[in-house]
């Protein structure tokens, strides 16, 4: 019989065991080994059957066992120590508290998904895992972050396979009462709520669930409440599900409702109000509109409120392709805003103008969430050096007249949270080498360029560690493969072969990620005969573990999964290559440490960062990857291999895949496998072990989420907080009026004359020229602009390729024609083809960059042709 109602019965803990509840409700247990060990000792069998989830464990453990533990003095002492340690972690000073006083009082961090732990399945892939690692690292560093997301009742889908290898999706219902979250409540005990107005006079209501991630509160909005109609209750049903309006409502709830949730949380708890708002991808971009709406209630007009909001907003883009960005029809967006719906104090046309693609190459009727994020944020970044470059080129249309290199999008390369992703065996080896506390500090705070202590670890210890991790992976793969085949309908009698799948002494390659086409899941199948030779080589075999999910609506991705699965089902090779369904955090934490090689072969430059390879590297796994994302930035032959790319314009997609697959096979056959199996005098693969050592020494400190969050604090959060403080109502109004005046006057700003006078007789390296420039400023004054000279090497088409800009000084004016004279020296600081130009930019003390307005005046074509290139 089916129950008509479901609810969760919580255990009553004996007084001595009360701290267990606090430990279970703070997700620090997910990366703190001692706390996990404590919960495991409560009931080892139930710990495993509960999925290593303390909340589920405590819900299932017997009252008799709890009574027994309450009388166990050793257990109670361990529990007391763990509770005290957590309290010190949450309340004590950490790295952030020693930083300069201008640091922000609080930062709100918005993301559509958060991968904290498998016990809170609110993530689909890299974006969510990155967001989870960001929160954990912020907690370790003491950064006062407030996370904001949505609570999806179905999370992301669970994946299984049909008998013929076709991906099948399942959406298990998640009961928040069985998750490590609690309701945020008002002072009278009622659940705290936020509401959004909808067209037609209805509303979207949401409760606020709180997940405590170490020191960081994570607020998760849930629309499955009785006050909502059926459609509104389903807004937070599943991650990245539904059609356009469903997604729009999700993103309105995340951005607008998220700001309201933050305000509610700060009111109820006394937490400092955020000075900086960080939107992790465009999904949360509407948060800026809600903050403008707040300021309009305080008397600011739209333009002034926009300036105030921009000053404290950071926007991070994660996609290198326009197709990866959410875009909505303008009419759909317009219907959900204005007097009859949400944000009634803001004119709908002003809202639309922030997101419409009104630039060359854009589609003017589409509302682009990333474009809105960039227009609402004074500071923006990509997630690797290469991705920053790609983003500047992709969004250059928003800053017309500027070279992509000057588009104001910087980069902070992603990192990964080492305590989450490093195997306990690796942590123990580090603790033996330098002590537990120094190991913890190195993995969380970071700050060093090298981990030199790795040099002192004996070769035998490194090799024994790698084999042990590989052996654990083999056991894990066999268990998961058996469960997968049973789900596919196989009987136990036909699965005896699984006991021989993989070998703990064979070179093991890992490949696991989402399955969009650009990640090329099946590139390894391009020449199946060569792959067979690699897998079945008599002396140097390789084995491959593959995992990944295709989006439920992506049949092309599902076909790639099926193609890989069918190859792996072949009895000739199924002991050497496996596909594991339902890739998630729990699987990943076994997969990264157990592999010798982490394979990544995306179409360059479509991988924004690719943090899976970072997690592998922290466990001593070597990377074999296309030079994309973070690998393009930090690759060195000492600790990995680069797959050559065939990205010339004359190469079509098929030919490119053929060439790059051939290069992959060559590397595996000629360099990777021989090095793994080569033995030195002591019977160890000395050169392989040295590459592992170099990976840990040089890559380890770089790939840390602690390093990433420190960069955000120093390069983005603190400047944004300072800008926010300087942008009071008066300053915001002043800047808005100034921008309006400059935009109106800019068509009349001109560069009218440029002349060069040599200060030395010959133009040689180190000599200096004097520039004199006449500019027309129309209704503007020299206080409104900066006149610059830009000089550097030039290419064959006279484009300045590595220009440096420096200001010229006003020397007189206005003349009878209203022109102003500017002068300055031009140093010839390099040999070879050299050129210069001049330009006029808007200038104001409150601008973050000269490119902020997207306005620039340069010499006319006639003037350029008359001046020519300075020197050849």
TrEMBL record:
Keywords: Allosteric enzyme, Carbohydrate metabolism, Glycosyltransferase, Pyridoxal phosphate, Transferase. Signal peptide: none annotated. SUPFAM superfamilies: UDP-Glycosyltransferase/glycogen phosphorylase (SSF53756). The modification N6-(pyridoxal phosphate)lysine is found at residue 615. InterPro entries: Agluc_phsphrylas, Glyco_trans_35, Glycogen/Maltodextrin_Phosph, Glycogen_phosphorylase_DUF3417, Pyridoxal_P_attach_site. Its EC number is 2.4.1.1. It is an enzyme of class 2 (transferase). Phosphorylase is an important allosteric enzyme in carbohydrate metabolism. Enzymes from different sources differ in their regulatory mechanisms and in their natural substrates. However, all known phosphorylases share catalytic and structural properties. Belongs to the glycogen phosphorylase family. This is glycogen phosphorylase.
